[in-house]
Write a structure and sequence with these properties.
The complex is a heterodimer of chains A (260) and B (302).
Chain A (H helix, E strand, L loop, with lengths): L1 H25 L1 H23 L2 E2 L5 E2 L21 H4 L5 H18 L2 H8 L3 H34 L12 H29 L3 H16 L1 H5 L6 H28 L4
Antiparallel strand pairs in A: 1-2
Chain B lengths: L1 E12 L2 E12 L3 E6 L5 H8 L7 E6 L2 E2 L3 H4 L2 E4 L11 H12 L4 H11 L15 H13 L5 E5 L7 H18 L2 E5 L3 H7 L2 E6 L2 E7 H7 L2 E7 L2 H12 L2 E4 L4 E5 L4 H12 L3 E8 L2 H13 L1
Parallel strand pairs in B: 3-8, 3-9, 6-7, 7-8
Antiparallel strand pairs in B: 1-2, 1-4, 4-5, 9-10, 11-13, 11-14, 12-13
Helix pairs in contact in B: 3-4, 4-5
The chains are: A mainly alpha (260), B alpha/beta (302).
Amino acid sequence: MSGVKHTAFINRLKSMLKVDARRMFTAPTVWIMFGISLALPVLILVMTSFIGGNTENGEAAAMFTNVWQAIGSAGGNAMSMDIASMCNINLLYFLVAIFVCLFVGEDFRSGYVKNLFTVRSKKTDYVLSKTIILFAAAAGMFLLYFIGAMAGGGIAGLSFDVAAAGASAGGIVACMISKIFFALVFVSIALTLATVGKQKLWLSILGSLAAGMLLFTMIPMMTPLNSGAFNVVLCVLGGPAFAAGLGAISNLILNKTNLV
Amino acid sequence: MNAIEIRNLTKTFGEKRAVDGLNMTVPQGAIYGFIGENGSGKSTTEKLICGLIQPNGGEIKLFGKDHRDQGVRAHIGVLIESPGCFPNCTVWNNMKLQAANLGIKDEDKEIRRVLHLVRMDGAASNKYKNCSLGMKQRIGIAFALLGNPSLLVLDEPINGLDADGMRLMREILVDITKNYGCTVLISSHILGELEKIATHYGIIRHGKMLLETTAARLNEDCPTYVALKANDMQKARTVLERAFGKADSDEATGEIRVAGGVKAEEVAKYLYENFAIPVTQLRTAKINLEEYYINLMREERK
């Protein structure tokens, strides 16, 4: 009997994922977000390398001297944040939060939830599927930002010296993995706030941005450029655990409140 | 087994009791006309049935099972307020989403079938936001029909439809109930249209069920009257009122209506023989659903 239930759950989740994937990739929002993720580092790196400030000697001082600065800073000291460490890949967490709010909010604003929840009473499927699909989109955005940063660094003529950035190739890979899994925290926060806000998109976006601001200083500490196994394990286990906790809250909200 | 069985259903929004101890029984295979004034609780009841809002109390059973049961819910088609489509997606893509939601195997074939049913074959590639109100309403009906549901819940589905659309809607609803055993719960203010298809009625007021009846019983309960036009309308009305107790002027048709089961010939003969008033037009008619409903509401307001 439990086997039957398990299969039913897997089937339900599969079909829900199919719906969400179709829904995501047939709408323009995700492509716009992917485009922004790719273009943003190119614009930042190219533009800041041409309009850098002046040093005491009167020489031009570019904001970024090494391409890896666009990915993160070594050491991960949250208190020593400068403009360069704020204008790096960590900006994407806010973009991810906005995307989650837009994607989930559209379900409520269009009235699609009426069709969906009339035929599907299990809200867990919805929350789980949304978390997975939005996490996948967030991962895509991070990878595109990485590609954009490489291209932008190349165009701007920045150094690709890993050692000069205080990291190693393995550290950078670990950093990216950590950052991608840390995005689950932002995805689940925004998802929960979107289920609270429902049709009120402004409420979920403002709430997500405010929550993001609170967590923003944590990101360099959790995901430094020279990340190690500890950072990866922390994010790979912590992200899903956080998402599971907030997912349960989202599920409760959807079950206990009016959907339209 | 009843398709819908509701007992003591209650829903409050703040201080307002939108649904107040409602009882409702919709037999399987019925076309149930759900009637009530604006704000009487029709849409709220329908949303409660579909599990879109949470009740404060009471019980809803669909085909004998709790309304939250996943197995039962998978067989409901719904059109409440609007079709719930993504405006920037095409009609086809919107329908593909719902077909996937329902787990329909041959999605394309089924979508083509329902679009053909509502005569919207040509609109599949249109963006939903570019469709007219009437088109959107037809698309909404097509949405609700996807996967041959056992229960259709329709909230004001006729609004915005042209005459052809209304006729088509009637044909579809009668067809799916007769040939597929579907049960339809339909709320509408266009009672003339509802009267043509409904087999059962529920009249709701202030969140309470005022009356549940069948079309056959309603037909028996609707009194007949004699409608006439005469040369001297004012005098005719005065004398008829004196003689038969009740004679009203119908402003819409300009006729005098004499109620109380009196025969048409008897009325004409009375006017001509006693007052030399010739009757120019004479017919016997039955009050319709709209009049029955208006009279009922008038009585309730007293």
